[in-house]
Amino acid sequence: LGLRRLRQPGLCFTGSATPQSKNFRARRTRRRCGLGYGRYRGGEYVPWGGAQFFTGRLSDRIGRHGLNVAGMWLCGAGVALLPMGHGAWWWSTSAAVAGLGMAMLYPNLSAAVADIAHPTWRASAIGLYRFWRDLGYGLGALGLGAAAALGGRIETAFSFVAVAMFLSGAVLWRWGEETHPRLNPAPVVLED
């Protein structure tokens, strides 16, 4: 598939480039290495970072739940699209789709935790959320490596991530709820 083109010298994924190696020709392209890989990473991070200015405010208006679910699914779609095509335009576009999905879910997951946490333990709740989130990154990396090894192709790893994102969105859609205080106010408890 398209990911095999990442091994071309212009994209700096050719291995070592010492004068004794067959890939010495790739040494001339090292200056372009940052541009090659950075272009695809920037294709995700620029939309992600830029769109957060809007998705954060949007979640204050329409709520967090829908944005979190749609963000999971959009991010999964971006990851699923990546190995289906080839070339700089395709990879950058699919990375941008994933970045827009991340902009929808990343700040709003933290906001959802903050919405339901009492102010006296809000910092601890967000810290606990971040612990489980980061543990998920580590376990996901192990699953990604296992999927690539068992599937024998790197495309299998992309499929693993896309399926995990779609399933996470489905679980959130099914069992999650709106947490924005204005849209889902907490019940009033009268103390005697």
Distance between the termini: 68 Å
In percent, how much strand structure appears in the residues? under 5%
Low-confidence stretches: 1-21, 23-34
The count of helical stretches stands at 5
Mean pLDDT equals 81
Q: Please give the share of residues in helix.
A: 55-70%
Would you tell me the structural class of the helices and strands? mainly alpha
Largest sheet: none
Task: Describe this structure as you would to a colleague.
The structure is a single chain. The protein has 192 residues and is mainly alpha-helical. It is globular, with a radius of gyration of 21 Å. Helix 2 (65-81) runs antiparallel to helix 3 (88-116). Mean pLDDT is 81; it is low at 1-21 and 23-34. The chain has helices at 30-62, 65-81, 88-116, 122-151, 154-175.
Quick tags:
68% helix, 192 residues, mainly alpha, single chain
Helix and strand topology:
Layout: H1 30-62, H2 65-81, H3 88-116, H4 122-151, H5 154-175
Concise overview:
The protein has 192 residues and is mainly alpha-helical. The protein has helices spanning 30-62, 65-81, 88-116, 122-151, 154-175. The protein is built from 5 helices and no strands.
